[in-house]
Amino acid sequence: MTPLMPNGIWQAIMAASDAFQIVTLLADSRWRHCAAALLAAFFYAWITENQILFSYGLHLVILLSAGWIGVNMFAVNRAIGGLR
Length: 84
Prior knowledge:
mainly alpha
């Protein structure tokens, strides 16, 4: 099976969400940081699901991506709770 989008698009989405997170870390706004972490978690979950269903199946990179989703959700929790 082929993925829904080419790998270059997946990689561009991940790079853009990571760049957005870095920019929001430099700004001192917890709500922007929360939005960046939430978007990153959403994009990584979407990409991970599509890679499992339509491409490689379960392997090490998918597990690392799932861990990164957890890190981002922890960041969302801290931002909502008011911690930096």
